[in-house]
Design brief:
The structure holds two protein chains of two kinds.
Chain A (H helix, E strand, L loop, with lengths): L19 E12 L6 E12 L3 E5 L6 H8 L7 E6 L2 E2 L5 H11 E4 L11 H9 L8 H7 L15 H13 L5 E5 L7 H18 L2 E6 L10 E6 L2 E7 L12
Parallel strand pairs in A: 3-8, 3-9, 6-7, 7-8
Antiparallel strand pairs in A: 1-2, 1-4, 4-5, 9-10
Helix pairs in contact in A: 3-4, 3-5, 4-5, 5-6
Chain B lengths: L1 H24 L1 H38 L5 E9 L1 H7 L4 E7 L1 E7 L7 E8 L11 E5 L9 E5 H6 L7 E6 L2 E12 L19 E7 H8 L4 E9 L5 H12 L8 E2 L4 H41 L2 H9 L4 H38 L14 H28 L2 H5 L7 H6 L10 H12 L1 H39 L4 E10 L2 H6 L4 E16 L2 E10 L8 E2 L5 E2 L6 E4 H7 L6 E6 L6 E10 L7 E4 H7 L5 E9 L4 H9 L4 E6 H55 L4 H37 L13 H27 L3 H6 L3
Classes of the chains: A alpha/beta, B alpha+beta.
Chain lengths: 251, 798
């Protein structure tokens, strides 16, 4: 199947060069105050490049979710700055952030978050209808290899199928960045691999910058780059010389 | 057992904590539901209490002031005849007295004021129809110029004890001094006209010492009126028959019981009306409130299905869970109950206040009837618990695992059918709305019905203004077409009308002849006035229900439709008319036509025919006038000086009085009804929206993350409500029209007919008011949609 992307499809190792599309400097996020003060992110600097597949790895409470939320325009840092291309995310109002999410960001949730009263195809079309230049819902579903049961409701699908619908829904608008929050967290290994394969395919075929957060280190093998978070800091950074195909990931 | 007991005990404690926190968390919902209950209860309390208050006031007044059971008027009889009356079997006390029409002249009144003078013993109260002095004192036997006057007039004209009052008695002006101001059971509802409105400014009752009245009317040692009580067990008809026999040689014109006494008849009509309304209105209100309570509380509990399922999964038996929700709704019902009692008491006081100009009782106070309070609160607690029981039962029938899952609306197949084809034609978010609307048809229908119930109440509040405007238009623009009426002291030849027309400013005078009659049909009778008018009368035109003019028949009579119904008469039936003045002929005339009057009961016939029946020449005793508006004041001043004129009334002044009297009452009613309508609209819309939000917060937040704007997300939720409101409003308007027609049709007060006329602006305002209430509720919920926690959604499973 031929799918046209906004960026040159790339699956090679040249990704990560040139100007970054996402730049964060001195990002901190503090919840509460006084004794109840919790530092979720502490002075993080981060660049993400176009087409990059980035895995944020860390245990619960390491700050990876907070970082993803700031990336996705769902949360504001306490201090520091975050910028997506020419969008300054820090200090932006709700309307601006909504527009940013609408135009640029695709989300995949841990629990799929499909609309129960819409069918598979309709769930994908729902987002296509608010996008500027979407692909067709069927094409998006084809990318995640869901070509049947399109008129079924989410409740009639398995978890893995639902999550692939969610991936299709996230990419149908041809997002610039795909944010996946523990996309396999609620799935067993086999179905998880199918979902990862879908995400990988999107990244390779469409060149969509992809950020996956997980506490599952096995997934890290898929990425161009892995950031290990711990206690709100970036504890380490790895670059994979070769990316593992999702089928070879085991956990 | 012991362990089970222990678990239950500890469980109840924690659940009670949950109860308090839930109530606190749902405060706006709790408040709106409590207000709904309060509305129902307050009307129940108000109506019931006010009806009983009126009844009590009447009973007390009648008993304390010894209101007579029967009355008789005659031409003149010696006082010794009173002894023979007392001898009649079945008669208790007899109070002979002198009663005459008089008029009062006041410098500040362009019209002369109609009055009635009644003789009282100079020393102390009469035996019957005693006076309840509200200020001043009893007349002094040494001062024959002292009178006691009725409180209504005193209040309307600001007369105080010690003031002078000029009375024309038997054609001679006499100066009196007001010694006291009093209430009388005979004049609780004091009116000189057949209109169901007191005309306090233009009707005065004077009680003067016997000697003063005797000399003025040349009635020394005589009486022309008697009030009587019946002995216990006596039959009214028998006694009245014997009284009639005894008085006939003395010009008796028919004894009658309380039921036909003017004030009492109005009072009874009003009480009948109150009795009907005190059942219908609370039934409607409480019915609506109970229905909504069921819907709203049911949903409130339903929305906690996951919590209930979790508790059950943890091993809680159903009973303590049910008890928990019973407590929840009982607290809400009690909150509403207390608010309703307070509100009801307040309404009762306000409404009782608005009765005062109509009913002149010594004591008329709002009463809180304990049993009504208890019934009202118990009923709302019961309804609330039934609602909760239903919801808990429905949830507890589900296996916990199933109840833990989100409520799947309808079957997928059914959902697919909804909009499968339209899906490609409309944005999917609208399709989501449609599926939500039609996927749960029962819920949608209940919401629609709930909102629609708000409309009739608002409409009912506004309707009264239309009804009154219509009544006034019909009565005073279409039936009474003149600008005023003058009544002559005695019948005068028709040519006397020229004298009236000679007054500068009088454009036209149309003579009328009215006589007091008793209408008899079978065993039913009714005392009223028979009005004779010309067949081509222009200033008095009877109308049918379509407002077409109906001329008086050349022979026979025309009668108000409700009066004919009261007497059991139809067109063509003969009615026996006992004229109670002049030569007192008894006429047997067919009912030729029926008219649809609104105010009062009228019987009309052709004036010439009436003159012939009365065996008199072409005479008139009243006249309708067409007056040049610019010279009206001068006209009335000139007419007041005419010796032949006994009383006069100006339509403009009367309308002003009417508006002053009735406006306050209408506003009170309208505010209460509109307020309740809005309470319902807010209660239903707000609670529906909150429950929907609770159920769909997760979905809406997901959509927000996917890039839907706040407006789009809120639109999803509120679009459904907008749909419900849009369907509910026409439904409510139709329901309102039906309900108003229904309530008016069971209304049995007959002294005036309320037309079921609702103007287009009233419909529009009722619709707008409910839309406004819905909008306000929606905006409050919209703020909650704006404040959805998006981040939390990422980590929670629905």
């Amino acid at each position: 199947m031929q799918v046209a992307g906004k960026q040159a499809p790339n699956g090679d190792d040249s990704v990560g060069e040139g100007d970054p599309v996402f730049v964060a400097r001195g990002l901190s996020k503090v919840y509460g105050s006084g004794e109840a003060r919790v530092v979720a992110l502490a002075d993080i600097d981060l660049d993400i490049h176009a087409g990059e597949f980035l895995v944020l790895l860390g245990p619960s409470g390491s700050g990876k979710s907070t970082l993803l939320n700031i990336l996705g325009g769902l949360d504001a840092p306490t201090s520091g700055s975050a910028r997506w291309r020419d969008h300054e995310l820090t200090g932006a109002g709700d309307a601006e952030l909504t527009l940013y999410r609408r135009e640029h960001v695709g989300f995949v949730f841990q629990f799929y978050n499909l609309i129960p009263s819409l069918t598979v195809r309709e769930n994908v079309e729902l987002v296509a209808q608010i996008a500027d230049d979407p692909m067709s819902a069927d094409d998006a579903l084809g990318l995640v290899e869901l070509t049947h049961r399109l008129d079924h409701f989410p409740a009639q699908l398995s978890g893995g199928e639902q999550q692939r619908v969610a991936v299709a829904r996230a990419i149908v608008k041809r997002p610039d960045i795909l944010l996946c929050d523990e996309p396999t967290g609620a799935l067993d290994a086999d179905t998880g691999r199918m979902v990862l394969a879908a995400i990988d395919k999107v990244n390779r075929d469409l060149g969509t910058t992809t950020v996956v957060i997980t506490h599952n280190s096995a997934i890290a093998g898929m990425a161009h780059r892995v950031l290990r978070l711990s206690g709100g800091h970036i504890a380490g950074e790895d670059r994979n010389a070769t990316r593992l195909p999702p089928g070879e990931i085991a956990w | 057992m012991v362990r089970a007991f222990g678990i239950r005990l500890r469980g109840v404690d924690v659940l009670d904590l949950k109860l308090v926190r839930d109530l606190w968390a749902m405060l706006p919902q709790v408040a709106t539901i409590a207000l709904l209950i309060a509305s129902g209860i307050s009307v129940l309390v108000m109506s019931g209490s006010n009806y009983l208050a009126l009844l009590q006031a009447m009973d007390d007044h009648y008993r304390n002031e010894r209101f007579a059971d029967a009355f008789a008027s005659l031409k003149r009889a010696p006082l010794t005849l009173a002894e023979r009356l007392r001898g009649i079997d079945g008669i208790g006390v007899v109070e002979p007295r002198i009663s005459h029409r008089v008029r009062v002249i006041r410098a500040d009144s362009e019209q002369s004021i109609a009055g009635r003078v009644l003789s009282i013993p100079a020393r102390g109260q009469p035996q019957l129809n005693r006076l309840k002095l509200v200020s001043g004192r009893w007349i002094d036997p040494l001062h024959r110029d002292e009178v006691i006057i009725n409180a209504a007039y005193a209040q309307a004209r600001h007369v105080r004890p010690g003031d002078a009052i000029d009375v024309v008695l038997n054609g001679r002006m006499q100066a009196f001094r007001v010694a006291g101001i009093a209430l009388s059971p005979e004049f609780v509802f004091a009116t000189r006209s057949a209109l169901p409105l007191p005309d306090d400014r233009n009707f005065v009752v004077l009680w003067a010492g016997r000697e003063a009245v005797e000399s003025a009317f040349d009635m020394t040692g005589a009486f022309n009126d008697a009030a009587m009580t019946l002995a216990p067990g006596a039959r009214m008809e028998d006694v009245l028959g014997q009284v009639d026999d005894l008085l006939r040689p003395y010009g008796g014109i028919g004894a009658y019981g309380r039921a036909e006494q003017a004030s009492h008849r109005f009072l009874e009509d009003e009480l009948d009306e109150q009795r009907t309304m005190s059942v219908i209105m609370p039934a409607v209100f409480f019915g609506i409130a109970a229905f909504l309570l069921n819907v709203v509380l049911g949903r409130l509990v339903q929305a906690q299905r996951e919590q209930i399922a979790s508790l059950r999964a943890l091993g809680y038996p159903t009973l303590p869970i049910a008890v928990h929700y019973f407590k929840l709704v009982t607290v809400i019902a009690l909150l509403g109950g207390v608010a309703g009692l307070v509100l009801g008491w307040w309404f009762a006081s306000v409404v009782i206040e608005s009765y005062r100009p109509f009913f002149r009782f010594p004591v008329l106070e709002a009463r809180m009837e304990p049993w009504i309070m208890i019934v009202a609160v118990a009923a709302s607690v019961m309804v609330a618990n039934v609602a909760a029981a239903g919801a808990v039962y429905r949830i507890s029938r589900l296996p916990p695992a199933e109840a833990l899952h989100p409520h799947a609306p309808g079957g997928p197949a059914a959902l697919l059918r909804v909009g499968r084809h339209v899906g490609t034609l409309m944005p999917l978010r609208h399709l989501m709305g449609l599926r939500s609307i039609f996927g749960r048809p029962v819920r949608t229908a209940l919401t629609i019905v709930g909102i629609s119930l708000a409309v009739p109440l608002v409409l009912f509040g506004l309707f009264w203004f239309d009804a009154i405007a219509h009544m006034l238009d019909v009565s005073f623009n279409r039936i009474e077409r003149g600008d005023g009426i003058v009544a002559f002291a005695a019948p005068v030849p028709r040519r006397a009308l020229h004298e009236l027309e000679a007054v500068p400013g009088v454009l036209f005078a149309e003579g009328q002849r009215s006589v007091a009659v008793r209408l008899v049909a079978g065993n039913r009778s009714y005392r009223t006035g028979l009005l004779g008018i010309a067949a081509d009368a222009e200033l008095r035109v009877q109308r049918d229900s379509d407002l077409n003019a109906i001329a008086v028949p050349a022979s026979g009579v025309m009668m108000s439709r409700p009066l004919a119904e009261r007497l059991g008469l139809a067109i063509g039936d003969e009615v026996r008319i006992e004229v109670m003045e002049g030569k007192r002929p008894v006429l047997l005339l067919p009912v030729e036509r029926l008219s649809d009057d609104i105010l009062g009961f009228t019987v009309t016939m052709e004036i010439g025919a009436l003159n012939r029946a009365m065996r008199e020449g072409p005479v008139v005793n009243s006249a309708a006038l067409k007056i040049d508006a610019a010279r009206e004041a001068d006209v009335w001043r000139a007419i007041r000086r005419m010796p032949m004129v006994e009383a006069s009334s100006s339509k403009a002044q009367w309308l002003g009085l009417f508006n002053d009297t009735i406006a306050g009452m209408l506003v009170v009613g309208a505010v209460i009804l509109v307020g309740f309508g809005l309470t319902i609209a807010v209660g239903v819309v707000y609670n529906s929206a909150r429950v929907a939000l609770q159920e769909r917060a997760w979905e809406l937040a997901s959509l927000r993350i996917l890039g839907f704007t706040r407006g789009e997300a809120a639109g999803l939720l509120l679009g459904e409500l907008a749909f419900c409101v849009a369907v509910a409003i026409p439904l409510g308007l139709a329901l309102g029209h039906w309900l108003i027609t229904l309530i008016l049709s069971v209304r049995i007060g007959e002294s005036f007919q309320i037309p079921a006329v609702i103007s287009p602006p009233s419909y529009a305002w009722a619709a707008l008011a409910v839309i406004f209430a819905a909008l306000a509720s929606a905006l409050i919920v919209r703020r909650r949609v704006d404040a959805l926690d998006l981040v939390a959604v990422l980590k929670t499973r629905d």
